[in-house]
Write a structure and sequence with these properties.
Two copies of one chain form a homodimer.
Chain A: H1 6-15, E1 24-30, E2 36-42, H2 44-53, E3 57-60, E4 65-68, E5 77-84, E6 91-97, E7 112-115, E8 118-121
Parallel strand pairs in A: 1-6
Antiparallel strand pairs in A: 1-2, 3-4, 5-6, 7-8
């Protein structure tokens, strides 16, 4: 998805219910496998950039700046579809993930699981989800 | 998943990085199909109840109370696996969803999608995701 026109982008941003900090949580899901890759945050500006470029851009709460996912690592997320929920306060990004999504070099950030009464690491670096 | 012992529950809660309101965003995903069903919020108490009962319990920010998902509608979420991410500030609940997850009677809350230059409703009530 690329080249969404300005009026459409404005209409989408207008519908999103941002929180008191101007942010909305965004889930990234691999569009074909269904893997949930990560949860990050977007503001209006990052949504605008994502819909304009077709490459996912978040808002980094720690750095307080736009976070063009994969800009340095090359592990970009190409936007396949932009979705949002019934209350308009959560976003679901259907993406094509290039390489690992996680900064630990794992495919997904959700690699801790409670299994057999303990927290286990269920995904190794540079592997796909079990 | 039921009957997680108290020491394990305490260890899990201790590892979660709750926000300044004592909350963490939680994604519910149907464990077998991979559908992302909803995003809601949990506090320590709702995590404790979820891991004890095996039925998902959120924290309702609007009602400021525990939200035992499906308690009135019957649309419960049985917990299959509790996961959390690299930064420990997001939870992924692998669930068995009974009926629709959304209060609009749709399977998933994420039924708005930007397609063909406009926001479309991509899921009808009591249908599964396209």
């Amino acid at each position: 998805m690329t080249g969404v026109d300005e009026a459409t982008i404005a209409a989408v941003i207008d519908r999103i219910a941002f929180d008191e900090k101007g942010l909305v949580p965004a889930i990234a899901q691999q569009h074909d496998s269904g893997e949930v890759l990560m949860l990050a945050w977007m503001n209006a500006e990052s949504i605008r950039e994502t819909l304009t470029s077709g490459q996912v851009c978040y808002w980094s709460r720690s750095r307080r700046s736009l976070w063009r996912k994969g800009e340095t690592s090359g592990h970009r997320q190409r936007l396949v579809e932009f979705r949002f929920d019934c209350d308009r306060d959560a976003v679901l990004l259907m993406v094509e993930q290039q390489g690992p999504a996680c900064h630990t070099d794992r495919r997904s950030c959700f690699f801790h699981a409670l299994r057999d009464g303990t927290v286990r690491v269920i995904l190794e670096p540079a592997e796909t989800a079990s």
